[in-house]
Design goal:
single chain, alpha+beta, Adenine-n6-DNA-methyltransferase TaqI, Chain A, domain 2, four-stranded antiparallel β-sheet, 9 helices, 27 strands
């Protein structure tokens, strides 16, 4: 779909804006919005940064319990995340509540249409410039002194409404396509879980006789399988070291890195999830990763704690971190990848999540015994390898499909961002754009 340009433009006097429609004004954000600072602890409809989806500005419910004072807001106010990782978060409030955390809470002034202003705060060039202004080493923030003085286009209110209405309609179409791809990814994740769970508890041959495993959450297993505790197949279990590292990963095998706990998310080992060990710290080669190491996250969110993956090759420059367990098996009797798949299957996930402890839902822990005492359906190593090969092939196809869906989502979100930028800066004229069929 192509869009018309405005009949006439003028130089905005702002380098990043360039030309704007000739009848538009340009003024600082603080002329369009007043900063709110009144604190409250009444806790009706609290909103934190994690409640806002960055690319869309939508509210996302969570179960998090909030502590401390918040800034009171009402319907039509805008919550803008001022921490650098969250600058693209801008929520238009639909009711009254409290903004808990690092927000600039703004109330649109007379003549400023709240929905249009929200789209301006989601515009990528605006975000990039505010990002460059942040200060602080650990938690960089954008100050109101800078954000409030940012120059923004100011079309007439009726035109702001027309642009916001157009963007509501067009972004809704894009969001529906994104949701479709997200549903596909969720279905693939469910199917992956089901395929893995069936293979590691029932095997690949549907005709074999079954027997009661003696474990309620396992149910029946093939009659020729044993059921043993994981500790009986593990030669060693240990956790690593978590020194203060750099914020970036290693760039070559000549650098030492310490793995991040996220290296096992998704059941596939990702060696790129690491941080460089500073030059003034002495590496511990005994913690280096070897092919066949089964890595299990011992501390993470409820959904990720206990995630497991196997290193398929040696990584002599990558070290085990303190938030990971490393299990080494007797490879002649057991296939490491079979164990990793088992730890990722749904019945085991449920047991791990039940056993996880911790005061915060964002960081739960499991002890070694949680893993070692689990009952493991145990075919001989040849059958373990056959199951592993089958699951490798099936899950690889699912991963490829999910990757394609993620690429489509990224392209749609890029399209959405470009459309918002073009509309709120006047690069396209949408005042008389007819509604398009979805």
């Amino acid at each position: 779909m192509s869009f018309a340009r405005y009949p006439a433009y003028k130089d905005s006097g702002v380098e990043w804006l360039g030309e704007v429609p000739a009848h538009w004004e340009v003024h600082r954000l603080k002329r369009s919005a007043q900063l709110l600072t009144e604190k409250t602890d009444r806790r009706t409809n609290p909103v934190a940064l994690e409640n806002i989806e960055s690319w869309s500005g939508r509210f996302v419910p969570t179960d998090t319990e909030f502590a401390g004072d918040g800034v009171a807001f009402q319907h039509g106010d805008i919550l803008f995340g001022k921490l650098r990782p969250y600058l693209a978060k801008a929520l238009l409030a639909q009711n009254e509540g409290e903004a808990v955390g690092d927000f600039h809470v703004m109330r649109p002034q007379e003549g400023a249409i709240p929905r249009f202003l929200q789209y301006q705060l989601l515009e990528q060039a605006f975000i990039d410039i505010v990002d460059g202004s942040t200060f602080g080493s650990k938690m960089p923030r954008a100050s109101w002194e800078f954000v409030g003085t940012m120059p923004l286009p100011a079309p007439p209110p009726s035109e702001q409404t027309a642009i916001a209405t157009f963007l509501d309609r067009e972004t809704a179409k894009i969001d529906a396509l994104v949701a479709e791809q997200e549903r596909l990814i969720a279905l693939l994740k469910e199917k992956r879980q089901a395929v893995i769970s069936h293979a590691v508890t029932k095997g690949l041959d549907p005709s074999v006789p079954m027997k009661d495993s003696g474990v309620e959450w396992l149910g029946e297993v093939p009659a020729h399988w044993e059921v043993v505790r994981i500790k009986h197949v593990v030669a060693s279990i240990e956790q690593g070291w978590s020194p203060q590292c750099e914020s970036y990963p290693v760039e070559s095998a000549d650098q030492w890195g310490v793995l991040k706990v996220g290296c096992v998310n998704g059941g596939v080992f990702n060696p790129d999830e690491n941080k460089v060990l500073p030059d003034d710290l002495t590496p511990v080669p005994a913690l280096a990763i070897r092919a066949g190491d089964v890595l299990v996250s011992r501390a993470n969110t409820r959904e990720l704690v206990g995630s497991a993956a196997t290193a398929l090759m040696d990584y002599p420059n990558l070290l085990l971190c303190d938030k990971l367990y490393r299990l080494r098996l007797n490879h002649k009797m057991d296939a490491p990848q079979y164990l990793a798949y088992f730890l990722g299957c749904l019945p085991v996930r449920e047991q791990i999540e039940l056993a996880a402890t911790g005061a915060s839902s964002s960081m739960l822990n499991i002890g070694q015994a949680t893993i070692l005492e689990l009952r493991l359906p145990h075919p001989d190593v040849e059958e373990q390898l056959a199951i592993t090969a089958h699951l490798d092939a099936v899950t690889a196809r699912m991963r490829d499909t999910a990757t394609e869906a993620e690429a489509i989502i990224a392209a749609l979100q890029e399209r959405r961002s470009a459309l918002i930028s073009a509309a709120v800066t006047g690069q396209i004229d949408v005042r008389c754009t007819p509604e398009q069929a979805p």
